[in-house]
What does this fold into?
Amino acid sequence: MPWVPLKHPWWLNINTQFAVATAIFSALKPEGAERRLSAVRRQLGKKRSAIRTAMRPQILSSFLYTYRDLTNNEILAYIDFATSETGKKYHTVIIDGVQKALVKSSTQWGQRIGDILAQ
It folds into this structure.
């Protein structure tokens, strides 16, 4: 299933929602499924701003919790790493792996839901 490359964390949410929709449509095989999936993708794209707004506080809270015990020097060292070429590559690989795992599990979940609905 093709997804949007992650340039921002909220795309992970959009890609996961699209994976579930794709799997459900695949299981149900409704007439005009491709057209409907295109409409779902457009709607999710239109909601990007709202999703970003909703996710921003959650992401910030997560970062604050995750890094709460670090000293200022440790945070500065992490920022140096994260903005280095190695750090950028590291984060790209991690985020891509998380995205692939979530899309795969969301697709499987959607397929199961579709199978249940098709009964």
Summary: The first helix runs from residue 10 to 28.
